[in-house]
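Batch 3, record 17
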Amino acid sequence: MFKDISVNNQQVVHRDTQSVVIRLSIAVLMAALCAITIYVLALSEPAQPILRNLALAQLDNTGVDNPVTAVLLNFRSYDTLLEIALLYVVVLSLYSCLFNPNESNLPPLPTFESHVIVRHFLRAFIPLIILIGGYLLWTGAYEPGGAFQAGAIIASGFIVVRVVGEPIIYPPWIDTLCIALGTATFVAVAIAVAFFEGTILTYPAGSAAGLILLIEIAATLSITLSLYIFYRMLGRL
Amino acid sequence: MNDILMYSATGFVLFFLGLYFVAFAPLVITRILAINIMGVGIFMFLVAHANSHNGVTDPVPHALILTGIVVAVAGTALALVLVKKIQVLSHNQNVTINSSSDTDQHTIQHTEQSPNQRTKDNLHD
Amino acid sequence: MINTLIDICLCAGIIMIATMSLTSQYLFKAIVLFMCFGILVTLAWVRLNAWDIAIAEAAIGAGITGVLLLVSLKPNSVPKKQTEL
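Prediction for the assembled complex:
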């Protein structure tokens, strides 16, 4: 099944009769499986919304009004902690893939003169993107929005600037600091809270809103830099 | 209820479509696309069922999927960097990866050097 | 009635664009169709009242994933030491 994959973006076609028969039979099998699953789904009753009722009943104690943010950063904050840690690990593994001491250095991402219209458009556009990101971060407590959306939108603004060829110049320690900041803040809050409440990531009454905002700001910086580094690394390789 | 079933069915179709192409697509980047499409299928099933209780949506699957989207993009970036790394390390233009368990050798004919020799060259560097 | 029609068109379009993207012979076409797929899926999230996910999918699924895939299509910049080999 996983016999031959072309890595170099050029298709190599092997069509002998055996592989065609195998492909067809597996396609028929998957279609049948899909049809059976949908049929079973159509017959079954939807499950009782136990978790939803629990979450909505406790919403007043979470410090935020948006139920999704409450689940992300209060009820199930373990998941979010592990997710930020996962982004950190992926960035570290990208660095270890690219900067092998046995190889010579990769050339930097090229910069070139962008068109004058693009440059002036971006000059007005980038502050707006950052403003929208900040708005989404702040409004995540009340309405749809939050750290992930804010980080993704600011990162896409950075990527637009880089795609048209303009350089983004900042000292390299900002990379190191901001990637680790999300995980570090989250773990620090988790441990600090454990001294007062006895369990990890159980916020003391009344301080939940401030702590959630602190974690969200750190997570936004971390996600922004991580996504931008993904683009930069892939462009250099 | 009807539209929920429709979106769940779409999710399942996307999942099985992605599964087929993860197994059989000829290009490695198409397989990465297929994994992403599989993920979207699962997300769509979960969101459709979060919506199924008379108007009030369930926030727990929404939070789960928000996490899942960011994890998916991280996984895609890692997969792409590994693919580029393989391309750089094998600067032969027509490399196909052949799994070791498979005994028929017809894919190796497309490479100019044997895979062992190539690995040795890179280790030498 | 009109809502059901929109749902049917959206589901059919999502499956169609996913199939076109995966069966395409050219990688550039496949990736651009994948970005279109992300935008259609964003509309599906909006139809399913999942606004948080719609914002994230529009920025990440349709935008950043597509850019990462497209930038990985550019020819490799092989390090100097490797080319001298």
